[in-house]
Amino acid sequence: MSYYQQHRSEFVEGLRAFLRIPSVSTLPEHSSDVRRAAEFVREELRTAGMSFAELIEGKGHPLVYAEWMNAPGKPTILFYGHYDVQPADPLEEWKSPPFEPEIRGQDIFARGSSDDKGQTYIQIKAVEGLLKSTGKLPVNVKFLIEGEEETGGEHIEEYVRTRPPRLKADAAVICDTEMFAPGLPTICIGLRGIVYGELVVEGANHDLHSGVYGGAAPNPIQAIAQILCALKDSNGHISIPGFYDRVIPPDPQEREAWARLPFDETEYTQKEMGAAELVGEPEVPLFERVWARPTLEVHGIRGGFTGEGAKTVIPARAVAKVSTRLVADQRPEEAAQQLKNAVKAACPRGVRAEFRVIHSAAPSLTNPDNRFIHAAAQAMNQVFGKETVFIRSGGSIPIVGVFDQYLGIPSVMMGFGLPDDNLHAPNEKFHLPNFFRGIESVALYLEMLGR
Amino acid sequence: MSYYQQHRSEFVEGLRAFLRIPSVSTLPEHSSDVRRAAEFVREELRTAGMSFAELIEGKGHPLVYAEWMNAPGKPTILFYGHYDVQPADPLEEWKSPPFEPEIRGQDIFARGSSDDKGQTYIQIKAVEGLLKSTGKLPVNVKFLIEGEEETGGEHIEEYVRTRPPRLKADAAVICDTEMFAPGLPTICIGLRGIVYGELVVEGANHDLHSGVYGGAAPNPIQAIAQILCALKDSNGHISIPGFYDRVIPPDPQEREAWARLPFDETEYTQKEMGAAELVGEPEVPLFERVWARPTLEVHGIRGGFTGEGAKTVIPARAVAKVSTRLVADQRPEEAAQQLKNAVKAACPRGVRAEFRVIHSAAPSLTNPDNRFIHAAAQAMNQVFGKETVFIRSGGSIPIVGVFDQYLGIPSVMMGFGLPDDNLHAPNEKFHLPNFFRGIESVALYLEMLGR
Predict the structure, then answer these.
(1) Is the full-model pTM beyond 0.90?
(2) B36: burial class by Cβ within 10 Å (0-12, 13-18, 19+)?
(3) Is A209 close to B395, i.e. CB distance below 8 A?
(4) Per residue in A180-220, pLDDT tens?
């Protein structure tokens, strides 16, 4: 029985302790919790046997850095993960409190269990197992774990942009994605980028009575509605001029591989999403819509009177949170400018409208034909007992683009989440068998790279 | 010197006592104050010399009823007013406390001074003057004063709907509107009705990650935007099928009269509304837009993430408060059904949309060519020394439709408020010259009707 099999209950206990820290990076009232989570990771890395582990301070939440460089001549792997989590609201929809991890069946439920504390912990425990059982690692290993992934904070990007010598590595390994289906080992080779911001619309300088002024007064909520409809048509096509110009369509081989993925559309739609039907560009196949096409979404909106009952007010102001996901080879700055211009062009009379960028990230697309990805596919294949599939993800992991641009290294995205893990939603969970197999897969991967 | 000129200081002292009662009908903690205001009105009506005055109890706050029926063969006038007031917040913006009436210049400042205690008191004092100085009234007079106007309470409507014989009258007189401009006697002959409700749109049964599902998942906020744009075009035209079918355009005479009203559009737009420009149906003149055309407004909207920063969620649900103002000869029930149907028809794929009515009121339009309005115009003309103008109001006074429907009587809206009286806002005021002239106008009106 291996170290990994012997220590499963300790791993789960450690993960529970990690999950109990409400490290919600976007809420200022949790900033001391976020720091506590950083310190927790640093201690775990020290305990695991890394040569040293420390916090890197800067603007925003600290980075955790650790290294073990005692395998001369062997490649160097840079592990990336994040210790911060999404806000937990709406709280009333959680079956167990978001920061009191509870195991039900084979799943552990807590905010961050899958995204990304559980998967970051996989990396740490994989390294710990090798160091504890053999006293060394088969390759050189560095960790860079951040606390601003969910806020789009710029600390890590600013740090990596300076190309610090200590970050020199041959490949990054990121465990922050998901398996295509339960039991199906999966490597993600493409990510969408994002431009996220606020659409602010202002009309009169104070709220107006809709009886007295309705018919003459500008209404910022109606204006936001008009702008949103001008940005995206009813078929899900983005109507922003030039927006699709740089979009690279998937090649025929990739399209065929996607078509072969085991997939039940009814299950996906009704059970996973809980929706009546799928929407979006009718002529584009589903995986291409969510992985390889830009989209535009409203995430939230507020304005005027929203209490119980009725108030006949024409509000002075309305705000919507809007993002667009980008695909290779779109550029965030260009896309943001296109979006800003389109908002201005669509702004109705009588109001002022402005799109203010909160954060952005470049899309990424990795050629799977390299040794770091080959080895990952093999290791996962061996642990899970199934052929590894290559997919893309519709989400954004900004660091992949940053590593590519500033460190010149590919990112290997070995994901152990599941599609129904409820990321960013109530009742987030992590499947414990994936947690254990993930640890073994990462360990085997390092061994393979060291041969 | 008439009774009215002799008793001005008593009138002001009585009004002060009325205004000191914080009869905020919407706040349960003020319910005993609301009752105290009802009792105050009843005592004032008794003191004025009405044959009897009493409270009518029911669900909600009491009605005050009084009558004097000793003018056989003469018409019967039903005075309507309300003794309840809006909440006073934000308190810190009041220059003098809202329930400690203060006279500054020619204005008396207090919550309810204009809306509607001051104007209700005008009616009582007019009747008092005639009874005290001549021992009788030139016509028969009834009072029905309510305490739920500011809450949309249904006590009065339920009462009138039973057509109690004691409410039989030839016309209602309502003093709850405003003069078009200072010194310009004004009668309001039309009010818009309203259908107010919630537009609820639901997509997936839980919030979804926009990275993972963006491009395939229905978005209720985008759907609300699409529905709002389908209901009203960018020129302010309501696109609901059949919505304008019953709309009666103002006749050329009325349009000409409106065009002659003293009006400074720049002042109205920039100072009164605080807006950059007026919007709405470009081919329709301003007063027609706000008085004689139906409009559709969003009063509030909420959905998804609206906190600080960013959350990449596709929300499960979004809700907007939406109303449409109606004009003669639209019917609230029919308009509500048209709106519901249009929402269903505009509902995009993947979401469910529903419009739920919260309250509604019929529009009203009185033919000014009747003796009750003629006499009112003449009386005001004589007291104010200027030709009386006829306007409409874009707001809704539901009781007018109720009187029309259940009692079959026209409502004469003699308003003595001013456009800058700060109704529903801090520093509400009533212009004392209008208070005195209002009393004399109503008294003269009753005399004219009795001739």
Answers:
(1) no
(2) middle
(3) yes
(4) 999 999 999 999 999 999 999 999 998 899 999 999 999 99
